[in-house]
Amino acid sequence: MDSLYLAWQYVRFNKAKTIILVASITLIAVLPLALESLLTESERQLLVRAESTPLLIGTKGSALDLVMNSLYFDDEIPELMTMEAVERIHDTQFALPIPLYVRFQARGHPIVGTTFDYFEFRRLSIDQGCPLTMLGDCVLGAKAAELLGIGPGDDLVSSPDNLFDLAGVYPLKMKVAGVLAPNHSADDLAVFVDLKTAWVIQGLGHGHQDVTRTRDNSVVLKRADGNVAANAKLYHYTEITEDNLDNFHFHGDMSIYPLTAIIAVPNDEKSGALLRGRYLDRDDTEQAFLPAEVIDGLLQNIFRIRNVIDSVIAVVGLAMVLVIILVFTLSLRLRQREIQTIFRLGCRRAMIGRMLLAEIVLILSVSGVLCMAVLGVVNANAEELVRRLLMG
Amino acid sequence: MISIQNIQFRYPHGEFRLTIPEFSATQGEKVAIVGPSGSGKTTLLNLLAGILTPASGVIEVKKTAINDLNDANRRDFRIRNIGFVFQDFELLDYLTVFDNILHPYRITGALKLSEEVRQRAIHLAERMCIAGYLKKHPGELSQGEKQRAAICRAMLPNPSLILADEATGNLDPANKTRILDLLFENVDAHEATLVAVTHDHELLPRFDRVVDFQAFPSGGGL
Q1: Is the Cβ of B137 closer than 8 Å to some Cβ of chain A?
Q2: Residue A123 CA to its chain's centroid (Å)
Q3: In chain A, where are the structural domains located?
Q4: Residues 149-208 of B with CB under 8 A from A
């Protein structure tokens, strides 16, 4: 106990040296272990989400971008497809198509334009408020609501697509209809809207005062054969309310309106195989694939990267261990006089050894406790950290 | 109390050679050792403490031939019976004054640290006028205060032999007298034997006996 007491006094007195040593040792131990924990969690999250999505259909291009955007709401937008594709899948009667339009954001959270089928498919239930009921409504993921600090009845404004595009679409002020129960997936951080609301955000649908009834001629550019052309003075609504809902409309053929992907839920395995077969034509602009296969390929790459990182950490760790040995050796040299004094007082050689050992044990113990504390925090927040750090 | 007979000592790597045919001191005696630098005064103290072992001859402290003891027993004997006061105090920076005084009890199993020892340490510090500094570290003390703390450390186990190696060498004249007073006071209180190496001739009349080390070309001797 005395050697431990003396060691404690020594490390306490030499605070700066001790802190540097403890921090270095903790870092060496924490880095690979925390990385391992986060990678394992990221693999789990990626796989669970991918395996629960039977078939993904999108425009030919990077399957990984498509999966990351459709399953994890990554802000890398894939090549767009059109609503026609949904109809085509409907017509085959092989699967239930769930359209997705993941392109916009609201205060850093992805806006996911979809249909009611998505909520049923992902087993998302309303925790507070109600589901989407009218154009302009949004439903928040549990974590998104917590981070934004808003709930049912509050408003949420979509972020402009491009801040410097003065002629761009106005942000849409959405009404928060409800908040979803936690799902422990990317859905928790998303803002869900009806597909049409997503198109309104893009400007494909809009609402403005009725120019056929207005008495203010300054907004009218031209009247001819019952058609009225308005000028830029025409007031566009930036919020959809029950009062102005009827003024919102979409122009053109909605079958060519954009989507980022379609989740296809086949009736059975055979239907799934048949549906995939439809997309094997080389001239087809669309592709169908199993997200799990894409994620599996990604994980193989992660494994390779992890091995490289592990090797780098091992080398850095070894270098650090050598430096620590050097520090202890130099410390011993600096303490020669002290050791001589203790010897001259009558201390046995074994006691000197015990004192030095106690110092090492003390430093390693503090580092170990710190390491466990950091790992505890990392493990407790692994799910959230992975979503924020590794999946954007 | 201490007796040396026909001591021959030589450092393994060097020309220095020390020969002491006879040297002794009785219990309670205060002996000053004087002599030029390099004459072997400190070597004599180290031999008496059992830190160095002679090539031949006998060193007895309290009728124990310390050069016949093995290394571990010699260390145990030293920490129980011999108090060493060093010129540079040799206090440990990272320990408080109180822990420095108690240090011999923490580095050996030969001495048992008890509440009684702690109280004795406080009492000793009070007598040495450093009771107010017990929670401070040596870096916060003056030279005189450090030397008083070092004397407390040497005196705490109630050693029967005190070895002082130029214990007042680093002190100003006022502090020299004060430290020597306190050292003598404690030595008298415990009826210990004091063997002190000093260069300070003004202090010599206060010792019971003065032993003059003569300089030799290749070492020293009595």
Answers
A1: yes
A2: 19
A3: 2-45+299-390, 55-204+251-289
A4: 153
* Cβ contacts of A107-110, under 8 Å, gap ≥ 24: A107/A148, A107/A156, A107/A157, A107/A159, A108/A159, A109/A140, A109/A141, A109/A144, A109/A147, A109/A148, A109/A189, A109/A190, A109/A191, A110/A73, A110/A75, A110/A189, A110/A190, A110/A191
The Cα–Cα gap between A286 and A280 comes to: 9
CATH of the domain at B90: 3.40.50.300
pLDDT in tens, A86-114: 999 999 999 999 999 999 999 999 999 99
Q: What is the mean pLDDT of residues B83-109?
A: 91
Q: Which domain holds residue B212?
A: 2-221
8 Å CB contact of A338 and B75: no
- Residue B20 tokens read as 């002491």
| Residues B95, A344: C-beta atoms closer than 8 Å | no
ipTM of the complex: 0.84
Number of domains present in the structure of chain B: 1
Under the banding of pLDDT at 50, 70 and 90, the label for residue A1 is: low
Residues of B in contact with A10 (CB under 8 A): 94
For B55-76, the pLDDT digits (tens) are 999 999 988 999 889 988 998 8
Distance between CA atoms of residues A208 and A352, nearest Å: 87
For A170-226, the pLDDT digits (tens) are 788 899 999 999 988 889 999 999 999 999 888 888 887 777 777 777 777 777 777
Cβ contact, residue pair B84, A348, below 8 Å: no
* CB within 8 Å: A346 and B113: no
